[in-house]
Design brief:
Layout: H1 2-25, H2 55-59, H3 74-93, H4 99-119, H5 124-145, H6 148-171, H7 178-194, H8 196-219, H9 232-258
């Protein structure tokens, strides 16, 4: 199991390196295939030996080999974060055939998190295809395990969470972007596959975490009452926590309420 988790972490590092390209280019409408990775200052292509996740940044001391321009710390951080989330998913699901579906969620989650923080948008180019990819991967998992009820519940979870966010956007459009609505359907699909406790917990945690962060920013005067705070990261974090501990958190809440 340790070797499997280590392998998943290594895969996440490699995917994270690619996600850095996605995070930079997709919001700008640029191709993620061409041109190859290059220094934005001198334009020279990144050598293969300088494209090893995290390690290359450390060896280069965070600077371009050709022009000595600084390379942002966010690049190795994105790679490391993706590796960690991949490892966490491997621990959570083990050799279950559903793991590829949740690794895909981990990858797009990191990309969407960073993009939403950067430009306050959740690009359709990532979110909309994810409905198809996630449905296909979950369907394959259900075909292998024979648990078709999980797939049905995933579809219902998608509809439920999407409908809830859509209603919020209609009631208060200034506080809920339609990108959040579209992302909610994808998250509902994944959470619903695991259970209704995960759907409810993931949705609740998104608003709880977003509210705490908003109050914190107000207290330190980093935001005002009319400031727009990206909500996508809180939706993704809430979903991650629900995937890991949704059932346990729901049981804990019910136990506390019922004494």
């Amino acid at each position: 199991m340790i070797a499997f988790v280590a392998l998943s972490f290594s895969l996440g590092l490699l995917i994270g390196s690619f996600l850095n390209v996605v995070i930079w280019r997709v919001p700008r409408g640029e191709s993620i295939a061409q041109p190859s990775s290059h220094c934005p200052d001198c334009g020279n292509p990144v050598r293969p030996r300088d494209n090893i996740p995290v390690v290359s940044w450390v060896l280069l001391r965070g600077r371009c080999r050709d022009c000595d321009a600084p390379i942002s710390r966010r690049y190795p951080l994105v790679e490391a974060a993706t590796g960690v989330v991949f490892a966490v998913m491997a621990v959570r699901f083990g050799f279950n055939p559903v793991l590829p579906a949740y690794l895909y969620l981990a990858a797009i989650g990191v990309a969407l998190w960073m993009i939403d923080l950067d430009v306050k948008r959740l690009p359709n180019a990532i979110v909309l295809p994810s409905y198809v990819v996630a449905s296909a991967l979950l369907a394959v998992a259900s075909a292998v395990t024979g648990e078709w009820g999980d797939l049905l519940r995933a579809g219902l979870g998608m509809a439920a969470l999407y409908g809830f966010y859509f209603l919020l956007a209609l009631i208060y459009p200034a506080g809920m972007g339609f990108g959040d609505v579209k992302l909610s359907g994808v998250l509902g699909l994944y959470l619903g596959y695991l259970g209704w406790a995960e759907v409810v917990t993931g949705g609740f945690l998104a608003f709880l975490l977003g509210g705490i962060a908003g109050i914190g920013l107000l207290l330190v005067r980093k935001a005002g009452r009319k400031s727009q705070i990206p909500f996508g990261p809180f939706m993704l974090l809430g979903a991650l926590l629900a995937i890991l501990w949704g059932g346990a958190l729901a049981d804990l809440y019910l136990d506390s309420m019922l004494g």
